[in-house]
Amino acid sequence: MLLEDIVTPRLLTCAIIDDDEINRLTLQHCIGLTSSLHLIASLKGGVEGLNFFSLGRRVDVLFLDVEMPDLNGIEMIRLVPEPPEVIFTTAYESFGMEAYELNIADYLVKPFSYGRFQQAVQRAAERLHPALPVKLDLRQ
């Protein structure tokens, strides 16, 4: 990590994978309001998302719906080698334990507020760029 990455936080690239158009549009709106995010792709399902990553495409943060008809988000992310920081977006709270086991950045239950969205993005950013460890000089 370079010093300028700490002084000036870099733009985080992101993608959306959700089968519902209204949910994709809502996330696109929230991303548009967030100066630290740059949307790379908005995809309609798990298979399309898996193809995106299979082609070697990368993002820093992935907003991923859990319940999708073709391939659900939990199954999809398990198939992605070295997945990005994932923020699950779902209408169901029941997937919380599986999300926890996958070590995702956050879990947004729809509908969510922009404030809650910002918290999730902040958590993902902190996981991507943790504070540099402080070296203590214990010599006297």
Relevant terms:
single chain; 140 residues; alpha/beta; Rossmann fold; five-stranded parallel sheet; globular; disordered N terminus
3D architecture notes:
The protein is 38% helix and 20% strand. It is an alpha/beta fold and 140 residues long. It has a domain at 8-36 and 48-55 and 63-122: Rossmann fold. The chain has a five-stranded parallel sheet. It is globular, with a radius of gyration of 16 Å. The model is unreliable at 1-8 and 132-140 (pLDDT under 50). One of its GO terms (biological process) is regulation of DNA-templated transcription.
What's the CATH class of the domain at 8-36 and 48-55 and 63-122, please? Answer: Alpha Beta
Task: Indicate the proportion of strand residues.
Answer: 15-25%
Shape, per Cα inertia axes: globular
Whole-number average pLDDT? 87
How many helical stretches? 6
Could you please say which CATH topology of the domain at 8-36 and 48-55 and 63-122 applies here?
Rossmann fold
How many strand segments?
Answer: 5
Across the major sheet, the strand order is 2-1-3-4-5
Structural class: alpha/beta
- CATH homologous superfamily grouping of the domain at 8-36 and 48-55 and 63-122: Response regulator
Task: Identify the CATH architecture of the domain at 8-36 and 48-55 and 63-122.
Answer: 3-Layer(aba) Sandwich
Largest sheet: 5 strands, parallel
